[in-house]
Design a protein that fits this description.
This protein is mainly alpha-helical and 175 residues long. Helix content is 64%, strand content 7%.
């Protein structure tokens, strides 16, 4: 087993120690790289296609950070306002194709930003060897994605997304 596979296994065991089951699927899911259930019982990572092991690790860090936020900030009690925001955002998107109201997008954005505060803890606790700059760049890009969603009602796509990703990678990657 290689270094990245070992790191993935450490993250899975870390999640198990936190009381969350992690399942990695060899398929993709439209609109989602990974998901954390709001009740804190499950993390699902969709690793299909040509997803790299480093990307799987970053997805796991993201979702585990939600779970740690759930433990430390919510005492393992579901955040009903966040749950409502997610449910209504999904409903708006699926049934009406309308933009989710801004107050609901703000709640989603706030929870996403709060989760990023735990990324460094997970990185250190699990003794990851992926370059730290990749974690930092992913965190900045992730926050930006949700900020754009909060402001506009849609996640950035295409050239805007690609250009910002390249900009963040160039900023954080050591020369």
């Amino acid at each position: 087993m290689g270094i990245r596979e070992d790191e993935i296994q450490r993250l899975i065991h870390y999640g198990k120690g936190l009381g969350v089951k992690i399942v990695i699927y060899n398929k993709t899911k439209a609109g989602s790289a990974a998901e954390w259930t709001i009740d804190g019982s499950l993390i699902e990572v969709y690793a299909g296609g040509n997803k790299s092991k480093t990307t799987i690790i970053l997805d796991l860090i993201h979702e585990l950070a939600h779970h740690i936020w759930f433990i430390h900030e919510k005492n393992r009690q579901p955040d009903l306002k966040f749950e409502e925001a997610i449910d209504r955002a999904n409903l708006y998107q699926i049934e009406t194709d309308a933009i989710t109201p801004k107050h609901l997008r703000k709640k989603i954005y706030d929870v996403e930003v709060a989760g990023t505060g735990y990324w460094d803890i997970i990185y250190k606790d699990t003794n990851l060897k992926i370059p730290k700059w990749k974690v930092e760049a992913s965190k900045v890009f992730d926050i930006w994605m949700y900020q754009v969603y909060y402001e506009n009602g849609h996640f950035p796509k295409g050239k805007v997304r690609s250009d910002y990703y390249k900009e963040v990678q160039a900023k954080y990657k050591p020369s």
